[in-house]
Design brief:
This protein is an alpha+beta fold. Helices cover about 35% and strands about 25% of the residues. It is built from seven helices and six strands; from the N terminus they run ααβαβαβαββαβα. It has a four-stranded antiparallel sheet with strand order 5-4-3-6. Strands 1-2 form a two-stranded parallel sheet. A hairpin with a 2-residue loop joins β4 and β5. α2 packs antiparallel against α4. The protein is globular.
Length: about 180
């Protein structure tokens, strides 16, 4: 609740709040795909993720949905399999693929419709990898850019798993264990 209040500040409309919350989650929670704790269900709680200050796409989507709800904006989680053409060699070796299973994003109910937002990659990470950061205007979906600044393929959505009111913890763990046995 404190994170949501700080991020939303004195903004009045749900769109203004949603935009501010998106940027706070995108840039204040550092993206880290190397420290995913599947064994501890508590690690999928927004308060835990905020306290750590880092998380991967699912964790950051959880935080955005939670802070939106704390601000009076309906939020839900969306999941898709995505191919990251710019993933690092270290991450590809760890995963044995460039496909991210159950990538998390958030849907916010703004101006009487659901709008998709992906707060995954923080600004400093985008700058490091030469990728334009995702921006969010509260009216249009903000998913991954298909290309980086040089015109190379970046992210590609392969399969949509739909949206959920709560974290489908068991499903995520089962998929990760199946697709990333190492």
């Amino acid at each position: 609740i404190a994170f949501a209040r700080d991020a939303a500040g004195d903004r009045k409309t749900s769109i203004e709040k949603g935009i501010a919350l998106f940027y706070a989650v995108r840039d204040k929670i550092r993206y880290d795909p190397y420290r995913i704790d599947l064994e501890n269900r508590e690690s999928f709680k927004a308060s835990v993720i905020i306290g750590r200050g880092y998380g991967y796409c699912v964790a950051k989507a959880i935080v955005l949905a939670a802070v939106a709800r704390a601000s009076g904006i309906p939020g839900r989680l969306g999941f898709a399999d995505v191919r990251n053409h710019l993933s690092t060699e270290r991450l590809r070796q760890l995963m044995n693929t460039d496909t991210f299973i159950f990538h998390g994003y958030t849907e916010l109910f703004l101006d009487n419709r659901w709008v998709k937002a992906t707060p995954t990659f923080n600004l400093s990470l985008c700058e490091k990898f030469g990728v334009n950061p995702l921006n969010f205007d509260g009216r249009n979906d903000s998913l991954f850019h298909p290309y980086d600044r040089e015109g190379n393929k970046h992210m590609e959505y392969v399969r949509d798993h739909g949206h959920f009111a709560d974290v489908p913890y068991e499903r995520i763990v089962a998929y990760f264990r199946e697709y990333y046995p190492s």
